[in-house]
Amino acid sequence: MLASGLIAEGMNWMQAILTILLGHLIVLIPMLLNAHAGTKYGIPSPVFVRASLGVRSANVPAILRALVACGWFGIQTWIGGQAIYSMLRILWPASANFHGAAWFCFFPFWCVNRSAARSGSPPRKYSSLAWPLKAQAFFQDSGAKPPAQASPSAPLGVNFVNVAKEAGLNTKTIFGGEHKNKYLLETTGCGVAFDDYDNDGWLDIFLVNGSRLEGFPAGQEPTNRLYKNNRDGTFTDVSAQADLIHSGWGQAVCVGDYDNDGFDDLFISYFGKNVASTPPNTFFATRPAFDTSSLKKTIGFAS
Length: 303
Known about the structure:
By secondary structure, this protein is α+β, with helices and mostly antiparallel strands. The protein contains nine helices and eight strands. The chain has helices at 2-8, 13-41, 45-48, 50-57, 59-91, 101-118, 122-128, 131-142, 164-167, and strands spanning 192-195, 204-207, 225-229, 235-237, 250-256, 265-270, 282-286, 294-297. Mean pLDDT is 77; it is low at 274-279 and 287-303.
């Protein structure tokens, strides 16, 4: 599209290609520099720019990006309107004599796209309705036989039922605001581990719990939970017996037998050290004869 536009303005094909290549190279350099830090350290760009611009000023790149998106939206819809205008002139040649006919084609097309953008890109949903036609064309071209379509009412063969409450897994997991999230930390969730902590051959469940930015009243903080498998589809909370009642903004858990004693140990990562009474990253080493108790060690991991 860009090349054809430049050629229409008087360039030859090579000049048009070189101009586009030069433009891409000019844009590529600052893009790579901007993405380097985030790619190297795994930090999203909106978070990284806060270090240099601050929390509020970090919105400036987002606003600039929104303005660029608005510009491209206008360009794309104008091109779509021009395509409609070209088809209109073919179907109705007299339309070329109407002043403003191109704008008449552009504005309805712009309204349709604006509605699609506000409602969550329904064209993607509608395009999925065309897959039978696409599949039919593919099989006709390839000579293959189309597969038989399953009945919409046919069962999938697998059904899932929420039985957490009946199984005794009734602890609520907290990680930020319940109805509104302001920071990325509030969207990452918490970890879970399926681990046979007592070596009885049945998987038990360890749930990491988080917190909220405003914290909780003393004694009401969410805590990690260890559930022992009762071997009958239910679980018993043995967190207190295992000395795993610890509050803070827990994020993940890793299981491994670090001391080769035959019993799995837990490493739990936390966000920060002083946010909402959060402890540092903590290591729980199981005792060799594990009797639903543990030996806690804070072994100096960086938070």
